[in-house]
Amino acid sequence: MYFNKFVNSKSKRNRIFVFFIYSFLIAALISCDTVNEVLDDIDIFSDADNASLGNQLSAEIEGNSQEYPVFNGDPTIKSYINSRIFNHLLASSKITKKDAFSYELEIIDNDDVLNAFALPGGKLYVYTGLLKYLDSEAALAGVIGHEIGHAEEKHATERMTKQYGVTFLLSLILGDNPSELTQIASNLFVGLAFLSNSRSQEDESDERSFEYLQDTRYYPGGVKFFFEKLRDDGMISNGGSTIETFLSTHPDPLDRINETNQRLTNSGYEIYSWDDDQPNFYRAEYKTNILDKL
Fold first, then answer.
1. Which of these, 11, 15, 114, 126, has the minimum number of CB atoms within 10 Å of its CB?
2. How many angstroms separate the CA atoms of 246 and 205, rounded?
């Protein structure tokens, strides 16, 4: 089981040390107005822990074919996405955990969901509903880059640490109770809970996507194209979203468009929208190799 790796003697000694350090920090910060932002960055789980947890959760997800049906349509769609977009993104030198994580992409066959998500350790899932809604390779690359960013920054286990508390999790780890930890992980990540990223985590992943796409053939602002299309289709406004989007609803989608535009400006790029006609959007290629085959 995944959590058995936590309980060897060396691991216990290391985590006891971490326990006292984090306990001290939390005590010092308890009256600080920004304590929640600080806690977002606390994570007691290593890269190896993230990889093991991700393997366990992916087995649970893929074993639940009713809620997460794996796409069994034209196999060339997944092959094309992997070779043309996913692997191209993974070649970026800014993605640093390629040795620790087994990055992999799976398609979930549900046309009603405009969504994608990442598990700890690099397993990514994209719904056919999102693939059908997007209309360019740059847009899909932006989504995938964002999800890679969540994995690279270990946002899932940061949320787990914040949700249950450093002291409580370490008490389970040091008490050699992997079954209870496994149940906690399942409760937190299976279903929609693991999609609820904080404002800072979503912004950080948008920024990571922007950075990764700078190393590719794609327009670096692709991460905003989904939101721009939703906006122009009347599906989002300043009040939020009328649908379940592929990312958390905070920060506001319109704010995220503006943040990406600011990054483009700061880096010397022209600001283009999702419906502009630019060669590095690769709209025709997306239609031929993905949309027309779904």
1. 11
2. 13
pLDDT tens digits for 180-210?
Answer: 655 666 565 554 445 567 777 888 999 999 9
Nearest residue to 202 via CA among 156, 241, 250, 158 = 250
- Residues 292 and 213: their CA atoms lie apart, in Å, by 25
The size of the chain, in residues, is 294
Cα-flanking dihedrals φ and ψ of residue 70, to 5°?
-70, 140
| Catalytic residue of the set 60, 67, 106, 147 | 147
Report the C-alpha gap between 156 and 201 in whole angstroms: 10
Tell me which residue of 187, 123, 125, 124 sits closest to 159, measured CA to CA.
187
Question: How buried is 199 (Cβ within 10 angstroms: 0-12 exposed, 13-18 middle, 19+ buried)?
Answer: middle
In terms of pTM, does the model score above 0.85?
no
Strand 123-127 versus strand 104-108 pairing type: parallel
Say whether 219 sits in a helix, a strand or coil: coil
Instruction: Return all residues near 242 (Cβ < 8 A) that are at least 6 apart.
Output: 235, 236
| CA dist., res. 136 & res. 223, Å (int) | 11
Q: What is residue 104's DSSP assignment?
A: E
Sheet holding 123-127, edge to edge: 104-108, 123-127, 116-118
Tell me the per-residue pLDDT of 112-140, one tens digit each, with 9 for 90 and over.
999 899 998 999 999 999 999 999 999 99
Are 263 and 112 in contact by the 8 Å Cβ rule? The answer is no
104 is catalytic: no
Residue linked to tokens 């989904």: 226
In angstroms, the CA 179 to CA 269 distance is 50
Which one, of 108, 104, 105, 106, lies nearest residue 65 by Cα?
108
3-state helix, strand, coil in the chain (%, to 5): 60, 5, 35
* Residue 209 structure tokens: 């996507």
